[in-house]
Amino acid sequence: MTDSSDPTEPIAEATESAADSPGTTAGTTEMAADVSETAADVSETAADSSDSTAAPKETTVDFTRIGVDGDTVADVVSVLEGGRYVKGPVLERFEDRFAERAGVDHAVGVSSGTAALLLALRAGGVEAGDDVFVPGHTFFATASPVLALGAEPRFVDVDPDTYTMDPDALAEAVDGAANPAAVIPVHIYGGMADMGAIRGIADEHDLFVLEDACQAHFASRDGETAGAAGDVGAFSFYPSKNMTVAGDGGMVTTDDADLAERMREFRNHGRGDDGVHASLGLNYRLDETSAAVGLGQLAKVDRWNENRNLAAGRYTERLAGISEVRTPTEPENGHHVYHLYVIEVPERDALREHLAERGIETGIHYDTALHEHPAIAERVGDVDLPRSERLVDRIVSLPMHPAISESDVEYVARTIAEFYR
Ligand SMILES: Cc1ncc(COP(=O)(O)O)c(C=O)c1O
Q1: What is the pLDDT of residue 7?
Q2: CB burial class (10 A; 0-12, 13-18, 19+) of residue 382?
Q3: CATH of domain 71-298
Q4: What residues flank ligand 1, with Cβ below 6 Å?
Q5: How far is CA 180 from CA 128, 131, 142, 152, in A?
Q6: Nearest atom in ligand 1 to 236's CA
Q7: Residues of the chain whose pLDDT is less than 50?
Q8: CA-nearest residue, atom 4 of ligand 1
Q9: pLDDT of residue 331
């Protein structure tokens, strides 16, 4: 591979005919050697944010692969040479194309997925003392913006099959709440929550619906696309996501022009088109260089998602015969984009060690239920969510990225089978 190669280009063909040994799998990694340095750097940062990835002695199957292609590098250079680094035309183009792909009227680029969630809640009128419903199984950042606004996160247990917010549990939680104001369904791992049922409850109680689509770029279910099935959708472009801006970045999507306007103002010091700071905003802008990378990634993300889906199908097929392993459930009538491929297993930590010793990186997403993080627990006190609490000891995320080869998937599945034999 040269510097200008696309690190996430499928490499299955090159290795499909390869022998089954781990040594051959290592050859796959060698092919991607020119990008693995970047990937290694970024996966360290990934561990700081939402991921906890094991560090095997000698990696032969990467957990993820991160990088940009030569065209994108050229696009970034062109922005750098042009001298316009913020509030420029590249961001506008990125927003327009993202809105078009998501099937919404407006998209607003922001500095991270966390900022996207915060701006959306602010624009949706969520205030101190309001109740905001969040699932018990997700990354910390689904709840931190709620707490930052002084609102009250109300935790809802997840569906045992899809790990997304259980609508029946939501209905119960809303009935028992004093100031129900908003709900944040999370499309965890790339599979959409049951938005039809959740919206039904939200409509009944006049809740603002904010989709946390940070892991689900263009997943779909029941004919709806992630980010277009609520009042606002929030996306992350963190490096390990299905598409990135080669740094931190995010996007909010909506059909509502007023909400879009409020989010645009809030990301830019509360300043309107007339130059007046009529509301109190901060700086949550997305840079032109980031937008240039995002545009390049957007053009490819559907193909990458197809590859992820294909790899997931292979995993599920290969793991089907291992009775200890519970493979992911795809929502009926939907397209799962497999940001992560997560299985449930007994003896999870011993299995991870077994895999790490054989060069297979894994992760845990997440090892703590949302309400049990100390920073949240001290604010909300005792919360009982048996399904979310049980999950965290049983889940393990297997290597997943658009370029994972068939032989790598087979090697991982075989190594898992060997552990339970
Ligand atoms: C479900 C979920 N919500 C929110 C976020 C926050 O996104 P960011 O890291 O871009 O702030 C992430 C990403 O880490 C996420 O996975």
Answers
A1: 40
A2: exposed
A3: 3.40.640.10
A4: 49-50, 112-114, 138-139, 141-142, 186, 212, 214-215, 236, 238, 248, 250
A5: 12, 5, 17, 9
A6: 10
A7: 1-57
A8: 141
A9: 81
Asked if CATH classification 3.40.50.20 holds for the domain at 12-67+300-362+399-420, the reply, yes or no, is: no
The CA distance from 16 to 336, in Å, is 24
Per-residue pLDDT, 272: 94
Distance (angstroms) between ligand 1 centre and the Cα of 178 equals: 28
Q: Where are the domains of the chain?
A: 12-67+300-362+399-420, 71-298
SS3 330: coil
Rounded to the nearest whole angstrom, what is the distance from the C-alpha of residue 113 to the centroid of ligand 1? 5
* Closest to 56 in 3D by CA, of 20, 29, 38: 29
- DSSP per-residue string spanning 102-129: HT-SEEEEES-HHHHHHHHHHHTT--TT
Residue 26 Cα to ligand 1 middle (Å): 31
- Rounded to the nearest angstrom, the distance between the alpha carbon of 363 and the centre of ligand 1 is 16
Q: How many angstroms does the Cα of residue 415 sit away from the middle of ligand 1?
A: 31
Residue nearest to atom 8 of ligand 1 (CA): 113
What's residue 10's pLDDT?
A: 40
Instruction: List, for residues 197-219, the tens digit of each pLDDT value.
Output: 999 999 999 999 999 999 999 99
- Kindly report, residue by residue over 395-408, the tens digit of the pLDDT: 999 999 999 999 99
Q: Which helix (H) or strand (E) holds 250?
A: strand 250-254
User: What predicted TM-score, i.e. pTM, was given to this entire model?
Assistant: 0.89
For ligand 1, atom 14: residue with the closest CA: 50
Cα-to-centroid distance, 140 and ligand 1 (Å) = 8
